[in-house]
Amino acid sequence: MPELPEVETVVRALRPRLVGHTIQDVRNQWPRHIARPDFSELRARVQGLRVEALTRRAKYIVAQLSGGEHLLFHLKMTGHLAVVGADEPTNKHTHTVFVLNGDEELRFTDTRKFGRVYLVQDLAEVLTGLGPEPLEADFTPAVLERRLQKHKRAIKPTLLDQAVLAGVGNIYADEALHEAGIHPTRPANSLDQTEIAALHTAIQQVLNLGIEREGASISNYVKPDGTKGDMQNAVAVFRRTGMSCYRCGREIERIVLGGRSTHFCPGCQV
DNA sequence: ACCGGAGCCTGTTAGC
DNA sequence: TGCTAACAGGCTCCGG
User: Fold this and answer.
1) pLDDT value at position A131?
2) Which nucleotides of strand C lie within 7 A of protein CB?
3) Which listed residue (A17, A43, A45, A59) is catalytic?
4) Secondary structure E strands in A58-134
5) pLDDT, tens digit, for every residue of A219-248?
6) Which window residues (87-116, chain A) lie with Cβ within 7 Å of strand B?
7) What share of chain A is helix, strand, coil (3-state, %, to 5)?
8) Which residue approaches B6 most closely, CA to C1'?
9) Three-class secondary structure of residue A31 per DSSP
10) Is A251 helix (H, G, I), strand (E, B) or coil?
11) How much is the pTM?
12) b/e per residue, A136-162, with b = 16+ CB within 10 A?
């Protein structure tokens, strides 16, 4: 499940293979893969455009194109983006293909079909209502405190809310709460200053570790080149139900919060 | 305004 | 062992 570190890893891997390249054509096997506009319009609008930059905002991959266009990709659960030679065999879940100069293709493959492609002039059409980037300098403990104070629901689903904080998903929310020693069911607005400071540090720490380890290959995620990341070997609680906590030895428990599986240590998360 | 739940999907896993 | 049903989960939409 690609979250901020996984998406950042994808962006870093694809950047040198995309920036400076020109989109010659687009193919699509499943029209709903393209959220907006429709396929024929998207195809017409991007043909001949050059990729000027590749960046990330929240869990979106943003390709800035010549002509003021922006091509956005969201991988959701099982999306996979890769630049490969045009002669590489495609698989049946490859829904959209951007033909590039130099006999290469940018292919968006997605077994679960949750991922989407967007083409917009104005980024705000898609990137709206997102919370702060947790690794940017303007994300301070005070900012986190202000955002958490508005919610009395459990801290875990609050961290998953992209309007509260951008880029954190199920793995890193569980990991950050464990690192900070905070129980996932605690009301978001019940955390004191010390806990907020600890959570702020923990969020940045687990996200940076995830980036350093090039993502967590726990379900479907692999890097654009098909190899696995390494963060799955560094998780403290995620999908470690019944195993012992590295810190206190107690058994990791699993509960469901906001419809999502949540893993925590009953010994060191209070 | 906030929050929980359904729905979107299909490969994998649990259970009979 | 082989089948089916439940599960996984980011995000949007809907209703309380």
Assistant:
1) 94
2) 7-12
3) A59
4) 60-65, 70-74, 79-85, 94-100, 104-110, 116-120
5) 788 899 888 998 888 899 999 998 999 999
6) 93, 111-114
7) 30, 25, 45
8) A259
9) helix
10) strand
11) 0.95
12) eeebeeebbbebbeeeeebbbbbbbbe
A153 CB below 7 A from strand B atoms? yes
Closest nucleotide relative to residue A239's CA, C1' based: C8
CB-based contact A172:A198 (threshold 8 Å): no
Check residue A18 and report its DSSP letter.
H
Q: Residue A35: which nucleotide is closest by CA–C1'?
A: C12
Beta bridge partners of A120: A70
Sheet holding A34-36, edge to edge: A34-36, A116-120, A70-74, A60-65, A51-57
Nucleotide C8 C1' to residue A260 CA (A): 9
Calculated CA dihedral for residues A125, A4, A215, A249, nearest 10 degrees: -150
Q: Is residue A267 helix, strand or coil?
A: coil
Residue A234: the pLDDT is 86
Residue range A200-228: mean pLDDT, rounded: 91
Encode pLDDT of A58-93 as tens digits. 999 999 999 999 999 999 989 999 999 999 988 889
CA A52-A207-A129 angle, to 5 degrees, is 60
Q: Model confidence at A218, in pLDDT bands (50, 70, 90)?
A: confident
Instruction: State the Cα–Cα distance between residues A73 and A115, nearest whole angstrom.
Output: 7
